[in-house]
Write a structure and sequence with these properties.
The complex is a heterotetramer of chains A (about 290), B (about 325), C (about 325) and D (about 325).
Chain A (H helix, E strand, L loop, with lengths): L15 H10 L1 H23 L32 H37 L1 H16 L2 H11 L4 H28 L2 H8 L4 H37 L10 H8 L7 H29 L1 H4 L2
Chain C lengths: L3 E12 L2 E13 L4 E5 L6 H8 L8 E10 L2 E2 L5 H7 L4 E4 L3 H4 L6 H12 L4 H14 L5 H4 L9 H13 L5 E5 L7 H18 L2 E6 L2 H7 L2 E6 L2 E7 H6 L4 H10 L38 H5 L5 E4 L2 E3 L16
Parallel strand pairs in C: 3-8, 3-9, 6-7, 7-8
Antiparallel strand pairs in C: 1-2, 1-4, 4-5, 9-10, 10-12, 11-12
Chain D lengths: L5 E12 L2 E13 L4 E5 L6 H8 L7 E6 L2 E2 L5 H10 E4 L13 H11 L5 H14 L16 H13 L5 E5 L7 H18 L2 E6 L2 H7 L2 E6 L2 E7 H6 L4 H9 L5 H4 L31 H5 L5 E3 L2 E3 L5
Parallel strand pairs in D: 3-8, 3-9, 6-7, 7-8
Antiparallel strand pairs in D: 1-2, 1-4, 4-5, 9-10, 10-12, 11-12
The chains are: A mainly alpha (about 290), B mainly alpha (about 325), C alpha/beta (about 325), D alpha/beta (about 325).
GO molecular function, one term (chain C): ATP binding
InterPro entries (chain C): AAA+_ATPase, ABC_Ni/Peptide_Import, ABC_transporter-like_ATP-bd, ABC_transporter-like_CS, Oligopep_ABC_C, P-loop_NTPase
Membrane topology (chain C): Peripheral membrane protein
Amino acid sequence: MSGIALTAAPPAASDSPGLLRRLAGNRSAALGGVLLALVLGFAVVGPLLWPGDPWEMVAAPMLWPGEDMANPLGTDVMGRDLATGLVSGARVSLLIGLVATLIAATIGTLFGALGGFYGGRTDAVLMRVTELFQTVPTFVLAVVLVAVFRPSVTTAVLAIGIVSWPATARLVRAQFLVLRDREFVLAAETLGMSTPRLILTQILPNALPPVIAMSTLTIAHAIQTEAALSFLGLGDPNVMSWGTIIGGGREQLTEAWYVCGLPGIAIIVTVLAFNLLGEGLNDALNPHLQRR
Amino acid sequence: MAGAAVKRRGLRSFLLRRLWQVVPVLFGIAALNFLILQVAPGDVVDVLAGEAGAATPEYMAQLRAAFGLDQPVPVQFAHYIWNLVTLDLGFSFRQNMPVLELIMSRLPATLLLMLAALAIAVTLGSLIGVVAATRVRSWVDTLLSGFVLLTYAVPTFWLGLMAIVLFSAVLGWLPSGGMYTVGAGLTGFALVGDVLAHLLLPALTLSTFYLAVYARLVRSSMLELYGADFIRTARAKGAGEWRITLVHAFRNALLPMVTMLAYQSASMLSGAVLVETVFSWPGLGRLAFEAIRTRDLNLLLGILFFSSVVVVLVNLLVDLVYVLIDPRVDPTARRA
Amino acid sequence: MPLLEIRGLQTWFETRAGTVKAVNGVDLSIERGETVALVGESGSGKSVTAYSVLRLIEAAGGRIAGGEVLFDGTDMLRLDLASLRAVRGNRIAMIFQEPLSALNPVQSIGTQIVEALRLHRDIGLRAARERAVELLELVRMPSPRERLEEYPHRLSGGMRQRAMIAIALACEPDLLIADEPTTALDVTTQAQILDLLRELQGRLGMAMLLITHDLGVVAETADRVAVLYAGRVVEQGPVETLFDAPAHPYTRGLLDAVRIEELPPGSRLPEIPGMVPSLLALPPGCAFAPRCPRATPACDAGPPAMRAGGEGRLHACFNPWLSTVEGRVPA
Amino acid sequence: MTAPLLEMRRVVKHFPANGGMVRAVDDVSLQVAPGETLGLVGESGCGKSTLARLVMRLFPPSDGSILFDGTDLTTADRAAVAEYRSGLQMVFQDPFASLNPRETIGRILEQPLVVHRRGGRAERRDRVNALLERVGLRPEIAARYPHELSGGQRQRVGIARALILHPRMIVCDEAVSALDVSVRAQVLNLLLELRAELGLAALFISHDLAVVRHMSDRVAVMYLGEVVEQADRDSLWDRPLHPYTRALIAATPSTSPAARRRERLMLQGDLPSPIDPPRGCRFHPRCPLAQPRCREEAPALRRVGATEVACHLA
């Protein structure tokens, strides 16, 4: 569902010192950073404010937020504290989002780099595999993987990682294809530079910036996918995530819509934070846009 | 030689070749399914028949023989492929029906939902995109950017839930789920109207994300095209802004949108699973949800295979549309 | 009255780094039926001047900050959009450097010629298509009738530029602006296109403003030439006399640098030291002074005004090479 | 004649492309003696850039062999290739694309020395500074990034990079085409000086015949992947034998008043596609002098006076 189109931009002429300054000056990046800090703070400080087991039934069911200050965000249909649940969800979401993206970015970069650099048959094979993963509806595949291998945090991370890499692979490949024929790369080649050195020192540094930007968006998407899996009942049965709370609150949707509403807002804020950050990064790393 | 004639003649061979290219893709999907079965815990038959003893022991034994589990893996794979080729997706014991039959009975509902969502997304998306592009940095444009950002962040299933709360529970305007009013026995136009009323919320929910994607895409391609040399040519010819926007820019902005459509047919099917679950829309997605709940893995794998096939066919259709609208695509050339 | 008269044109671009004064006071006039070349290196403002005439520069992010562009007596800069459109493509037409990107990729050549016709003439579709065939014949497009249905990507570079010219000539303009029309083409194709432009211009009696960086193209095509440096005309006059005895040191330097074939092979080439000044911070005096071999302190004080040098020659220099008798001295 | 430094023997390069084979370079044999400059001229798509890349070993030839200093590169071992790499360097066309945007000028220039393990850190820095000065740049520029430099300065850096390993020959592929006239003269002068000073051999490739003539001892003209004429500079310029060479000279616009009134040999049509080039003489569809024989029979290169020419009528 990652519709935010990241085209293979011409490699940036940016050097890192200016990057932070540019990011801070970029409105979306700054807003994204603030939101992300909020979510991170919630995940880190939350357990101190609302300690305890999110699964424990601590009060009367379906307490509305603000009704009882012992449970500031109310309770769900089973009388479990929502604030504690939301904190747990924040930790799960961030963890799964980050690790799954790491997996996706690694596979994607490897596939894209090899295909783009070597071209020919290697590329053809790798691209067929990539296309295959783009043809299969990714969420359905993730559902099947988690269902077959039993729901747990590990299977969720692996499943999301496995379905999320094709976009990165395509981006990296496109970058490599362009850079491969750039004159400075040819110049390095005519110097007698070895292939690994050529890839690592000449091509990769120029290919990575948009990949980093895209990875931020992949995190956002991974968090949404995790929530959707948990919503369908494919979450880790021992871990309370935002999707789990929404899935549980469905039955009493009309009576206590806040049970579904609050974790949804948490998801929106987190995903928004990463999207904004990714967009800001993309602008800051892309000299093509800077000129506007 | 006129290009149009060449194109028409090329189209047939293009279609044939594209159809031929579908074969390895299908084979790959089948291989992927088989791979999942192979690395799954327990033996294939355990997975396929579902747990908790839903299948009779006789059928389990029969399945084991059919899969030749004593045979080497390649032979098992050959069996598996043959079953798929003969459209034998197995039997669902939970639903007591062949998987293929189940899927076919649910397919029309999903297609209806997807088409409706697509139609909404494409029309509204292009409209908003064009308007935003012609008024860059105006309030319309800012509003669109905000809407797009928010839409990207909102989980589809959550949006559906909230829509139910607002439009069904609070306002009472629209039904909260299902495809038609059960037991009303409506026919003719009344039935169509009833289905449309049921369709509206799920279709809007599913379309929201894509609407934002297309609006953004159309906006950015229009902006890029406004700087294109041939737009400058049109200006130099003395063409008016409306003519430039619609005849020259928008016509070209359609191309990336069609490409995007192909990319997103798979994503849309994924979205349909969630939306159907929320709205109890009796399609493939709802079927998948039921399969998850009952751990009917065979049915789930069948849905995965079948939905992939649907995506392949949709992509084929999009390719064909692309050839028709972009004269630069040479249908006789091989894929780049 | 000249057909086109540009007076004190200033076109600026606002960037984050400051105001780029791409065109900074250009004066130029073109008579009916005459070919004037505007020549300069990249960043000299020659294309920006051309786009400013048709006010295409606004869509490119520029702003006309001052001056007048009088076409047949009316100031183009003061026209409302409807009247401006009535001039564009009708009385003033334009062709561009990259014919492939300048043609709409999803419209056939015929459609694009017909559009140019029907925007300004009350003519039926069938008649317009017949006229389009005539136009393609006029630009010597091989098998013109078949080409109507062809899309730009299927034509060769030379044929694309011919199609572009056919579009420009559709309404028989009084003035054709050609922006680097042959830069993207190979030399042998360039020769064909220049030949065609020369012939059509004579036959149709239209004036032409030729924008180019290639002094050779100027010599073979234009009647008069204006040399641009850092957004200003530094010298103008009839091509033959100006190229024979350039008055401005920049013109002379430019000519010396390109007349490679007249030097003994392998010998040192005359060069202009340094580089073009930034358009963000132009020197207060003559913009060429820092690179000029004849510069004096006076050159840094204020910009030199345009002065007449006889035989229709004009130059903006405090210390010009004036003796026409002496001719060009090979460095 | 001394033993050639670079020798191409019947080199062929074909690329698969949409619906056919691009015959980018077809049976080309060329030689460059030590200290000599061979000019290579032709229009876009004639195969001159492919030839440069073949010489630089960026891809192998489909057929034929390329010898540098007597060693066949297609069969050479790693050590010989490394030796070859340092002996033959290239100056690229686009000064904006030929420098890595993420490396400083100093790093870019030092890299070849690091790759070939030459000198210690201090020695390398000295060499970089000395060379920067030699190409007319201040040593402070070593700390800058390419985007901070002008086009002319970048091309000087490109030349410095090509020279840092003390090559015996350089390949210049359209090395001044992207530069403005006033800067072009500066860069050409620098190349002339350095070549004389270092006794370099060169392959100088350009579409501009006047520039090629100025820079070269001998000139070869390519058309659609083939060498159609090859001669010493003056014979080719003063007495071109191939109709294509004549048309090329005639089509080059000149600022001299005399040239304005000269008789032109105008070619018809455009360059055919290098996919499935014309049968017989590849130039015959555009040749004003073509005979029936030219359609049937491909002319071989043969010697006429001081010139080698591939034309039935020469």
